[in-house]
Amino acid sequence: MNAFVISRLIPCLGLLWLWTAFFYRVHLWWNQASYYNYGWAVPLFCGLLWFRRASVIDGHVEREPDVGLTRGLFPLLGLLIAYVPLRLIAEPDPFWRFPLWLESAVLVCLTLFSIDRLYGRSSARAALIPCMFLFTALPWPALLETLLVQGLTNLVTLATAEGLLWLGHPAEALGHSIRIGEETVLINNACSGIRSFQGLLAISLFLFAYLELGLLAGLATVFFSVFASLFFNLGRAITLSLIHLLGTDTTYKSWHDAVGYFFITAAFVSLALFARGLWKKPTKEPKISEQVYQRTRLLVNPGIACLLALSCLLPEVFCYSWFRWVTPAKDVPGWHVEWPAKSKPISEGVADVLLFDYGALGNIDLPGGRLAEIIHFGYDGSSPAASICSRNHDPATCMGHYGTRLHDDHKEVLCKVDNVRLRFRHYIAGNPNFEGHHPMHVWWCPWVRDSRSGAFEDPGGSLFSKARRFLSGKVSFERKVLLIILRGHASTEQAEGELKAVLGSLVRSG
Questions:
Q1: SS3 call for 445
Q2: Residue 30 burial by Cβ neighbours in a 10 Å radius (0-12, 13-18, 19+)
Q3: Residue 401 contacts by C-beta under 8 Å, 6 or more apart in sequence?
Q4: Three-state DSSP class for 365?
Q5: What CA–CA distance (Å, rounded) separates 392 from 395?
Q6: Range(s) within the chain of domains with CATH label 3.40.1000
Q7: CB of 370 within 8 A of CB of 491?
Q8: How far apart are CA 3 and CA 219, in angstroms?
Q9: Residue 499, CA distances (Å) to 49, 90, 339, 418 in order
Q10: Kind plus residue range of the DSSP H or E element containing 107
Q11: pLDDT truncated to tens, each residue of the chain (510 aa)?
Q12: What is the C-alpha separation between 447 and 426, in angstroms, rounded?
């Protein structure tokens, strides 16, 4: 291997290190066994796109002389230095989506700029689409994701109920469940089609680029992926509903995964066949210009190449040093739930979605014939991918999947039990009576062992103090969730008093 190849390989290894460190944090989303588990295949598909685009461009474009790296060294180092604060912001909370998108955008710019300086403009053009395809591995914005999940779940529920009616089963859609006589079929997240929707959308974009489809053919492929995800997921929901109605619980469980694999495979195969049918193979070889440049192989200074590669290590070294030595962790008082009455496990379907390490639920009778339902689950920190569930499953989102619409009244209550401080968020549901009292009050506490401030609640302060506090340590993956549902018409003040009474008999420090 000559010095020319080595001098260009070293900076590429530095960029590869940055991308590896980035995807190491993004893979926590892929490991969540939820909507983004297809993300593992995105870097592989990106490599296939790179080889495909590079071979096509080499056949169409005149080769240009190498420009070397030295002419763009200082802008490239400037991009790397600008990347350091972005890397620092992304480190405390790897599940914050906005820094992930911003960081990936800077990495794409770094990659394209480096390829342009190392291998020429045509190679940079070849890498543009593969680099843009990497964005499909990132989690969607939370608001868009929630709206999509809720919308798809509602659509699948209504369509499944209508399909069952056509098949002779009198079905009625109630929220996100279907009532058929005495039987109830729940359409939850797993049945909404969001997983197949996002996976098929990513594959359609890959086929769009790999097959080099025209604009209309590419857009048709993308729209077909949306149609295929809805159509085949509807078939899956109807099939599982019929198995649930006509068979036993054992039959339903034994066929559940097989039916899902069949329909998702059929969706991917139909998308591939559709895109393949739109692909038009070139009838003749592209005309290559007779003018071929003599490649002036400018040798990049090995010292500069090594400096650039070492600069790519700067963000990781800086972040490790900052959170290892600059910001020592603080201790946070712990707590646990001591059930006053017999508790029982949380249902298997909810456990499959939330992926908690421990959890239970129970009831407490309140004065006046009212009832308090308590749901408690937590994560011991051993699985960061599972811990994310307690961050993104607020009561309005979770209970919305079961057809209960909660409204956030933006009230927060700080409760103290011994040396433990728990902050609860208040939700209401149902139509108020003539006194303005709602029939359901929901109190939600997502507690995290935050070693940055030493306490769960936000101490407040200026924007500068909040930013300094955010950068003073990593978010812990040890989380607990306490959800208290108060049933029966009551005012907010009465519900707050009942909350504190429940906590006094339920929560213990330590």
A1: strand
A2: buried
A3: 150, 153, 176, 188, 189
A4: strand
A5: 10
A6: 335-509
A7: no
A8: 45
A9: 56, 36, 15, 16
A10: helix 97-119
A11: 556 666 677 778 888 888 988 998 888 788 765 667 788 888 888 888 888 776 655 444 444 444 455 556 677 778 888 888 888 888 877 778 888 899 999 999 988 888 877 777 777 878 888 888 899 888 888 778 777 777 777 777 777 777 877 877 777 666 666 766 666 666 654 455 567 788 888 888 888 888 888 888 888 998 998 888 888 888 888 887 787 777 777 777 788 778 878 888 888 899 889 988 887 765 555 444 434 333 434 445 666 677 777 778 888 888 888 877 766 666 677 888 888 767 888 887 777 777 888 988 888 888 777 888 888 998 888 877 777 766 667 777 666 655 567 777 777 888 888 777 888 888 888 788 888 788 888 888 888 776 554 444 455 566 777 676 677 777 778 888 888 888 888 888 888 888 888 888 888 887
A12: 15
335-509: CATH topology: Protein Transport Mog1p; Chain A (3.40.1000)
Burial code of 325-359, b = ≥16 C-beta within 10 A, e = fewer?
A: eebeeeebeebebeeeeeeeebeeebeebbbbeeb
- How many whole angstroms separate alpha carbon 263 and alpha carbon 246? 20
Structure-token pair, residue 167 = 């098949």
**CA pair distance 271, 371, nearest whole angstrom:** 51
Written as one letter, the residue type at 60 is H
DSSP state for residue 360 in the 8-state scheme: E
Do residues 223 and 66 make contact, with C-beta atoms less than 8 angstroms apart?
no
Which helix (DSSP H) or strand (DSSP E) does residue 208 occupy? helix 194-210
Q: In Å, how far from its chain's centre is CA 221?
A: 24
- In DSSP terms, which residues pair with 421 in a beta bridge? 416
Distance of CA 98 to the CA centre of its chain: 11
What number of other Cβ atoms are within 10 A of residue 60's Cβ?
11
Asked if 80 and 311 count as a contact pair (C-beta separation under 8 A), the reply is yes
Residue with tokens 């960081």: 103
3-class DSSP state of 25: helix
